[in-house]
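call fold(seq) -> tokens
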Amino acid sequence: MTTPRANTRFLGYLGLKLLWLVFFTMAVAPFVFAQSSSQTAAPQSPQTDQAAPAAGGPGGDNGAIALPKKKDNPDETPAPAPAEPRIKNPEGLSNLSLHVEVPEVTVDVGVMLEKTRQFVPNLRPGNFRVYEDGVPQKIEGFKRTEAPITALLLCEFASNSYYFIYDMRNAAWTFAQQLRPNDYVALMTFDMRTQIVTDFTQDKKQILEGINMLQIPGFHETNVFDALHEALDRLSRLDGQKYIVLISSGRDSFSRITFDQALKYVKASHNTTIYTVSTGGAIRTMTEGRGGMMSSMRDMDYLQADNEMKTFASVTGGMSFFPRFTGEMPDIFKSINDNIRSKYRLIYRPTNTKQDGSWRKIRVELVDDEGQPLRMQDEKHKPLKYQIIARDGYRARQEVE
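ret:
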């Protein structure tokens, strides 16, 4: 049987327990309530917030925010870009391209003193005037050139006279001695037909050896026109400026083509300059004017040959020489060498742009600063005569070429 004191102690102990339980419940309840509310709030978010508004603007968790839709203002709307024009070809016609070629003429001009055959340096573009068929042309390009050469040594080697062969060998040897390491030179001989002794080479020894091989000629005929035509045909396959050094008596005896046909080929050649050196001058001087029909006919033949050699050289801008003595050869080929290597190159676009294959005549003049003919003087103020060496003209290309 319990006593009243024991009951009082039990009730006190039970009250303390209840008080501690209440205190613990009040401390833990906020954390439990916050967790339960966060778990239940997520699935109850409205579905309308997930879609973007009709007028644009942010969507998702930011809430239902909608911007008012702007009205189109025609005054502020930029005009649309113009459409690219499209051209429709006629039926059966494909796309075509138009190519217009503006012709360009290059003229190499040599200016030499007549007395000393020296090249005249230090000329300016304003000192040159170019005329095509009498019409002045505007010079668009100008430069002084001194470059390696590409030359064909064309020698007459026929059984006509020892004196002619002797002069030819001396002239060819003198020319070969003045070659430079970068020069391209070939040796070709002719009598009734042509023969390539040495093809184009930079080895001067091969040219000299080829000249030494010319000992016994074949035929008596000298077909100058045919040989010159074949030489021009061979050089036409090479690019750039070319030269022919024709060492011959100039007398043609059995060619298939005439002088007029040969001159036509010479005029039609592009970038080819001809220099001529006559042979047999000494024997011709000793036997000239002896009288008799045969002697007079022979003299006339050689005079005509000299004129033809001059023509071939002049129309291409070259030079012609008629030596009588062996001692003249070094000075002659020095003049040729200086003229080939030292030139003024003029470039212009002709005012006549027709490509009709016609012959266009070129004339070059030297003028001073006032437009008057240029006058040269030596150190003693004595006038010096000079020679302008340039081709007489060119043949325009055909439109179908």
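Confidence is low (pLDDT under 50) at residues 36-58.
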